[in-house]
Amino acid sequence: MRSRPELSLRARALQYLARREYSRAELAAKLRPYVQIEDDFEQLQPVNLDALLDDLVERGWLSDERAATQLLHARRPRFGLQRITHEMRQKGMSEALIEQALPELQDTELQSARDVWLRKFTGLAQDAKEKARQMRFLQSRGFSLDIIFKVLKTSGEED
Predict the structure, then answer these.
(1) Local structure of 21: helix, strand or coil
(2) Distances (CA, A) of 72 to 81, 83, 148
(3) d(CA 92, CA 126)
(4) Which fold has domain 1-62?
(5) Which residue spans within 22-118 are E strands per DSSP?
(6) Within 13 Å of residue 104, how many CA atoms lie on the same side as its CB?
(7) In the chain, what are the domain boundaries?
(8) Taking the model in full, what pTM does it have?
């Protein structure tokens, strides 16, 4: 069997970026295990991960803004404000990007919670146990309690 040639750090980064958008911190974490000394022009030189990431940003191939937009569009139909902002922080996105996304998330949170609730449940809870189950479900999706109370209070009136 032939062994697969080892990819350069740049080639590996481009493969990741070809699949989906990554934040700078997220891509750095994925590439860090592969950083090693590479043989460049018969001199051993350390690969500078930050320089590679700076180059990718400069060329427009790596963008935290695009990664945030992609995350928002992918998560908005299924999750609430708290869960999405937590995920953005986990992916290393800046607080400025998160703050920029908050107004859009807040404007659509009630409707998103209703949509998620309607996909999961057929109607309002008939007893306290069922109501608690519905509340826990919406909380696990990252919706705040005031949004959950609004959904459970008004969903029956609009049907």
Answers:
(1) coil
(2) 10, 11, 20
(3) 42
(4) Arc Repressor Mutant, subunit A (1.10.10)
(5) 37-40, 43-46
(6) 14
(7) 1-62
(8) 0.78
Q: How far apart are CA 136 and CA 130, in angstroms?
A: 10
Residue indicated by tokens 């080892």:
6
As a whole number of angstroms, the distance between CA 78 and CA 71 comes to 12
Residue 55 corresponds to which amino acid? D
pLDDT tens per residue, the chain (159 residues)? 544 566 788 999 999 999 999 999 999 999 988 887 554 544 445 568 899 999 999 999 999 999 999 999 999 999 999 999 999 999 999 999 999 988 888 888 999 999 999 999 988 888 899 999 999 999 999 999 999 999 998 754 543
CA distance 73 to 122: 26
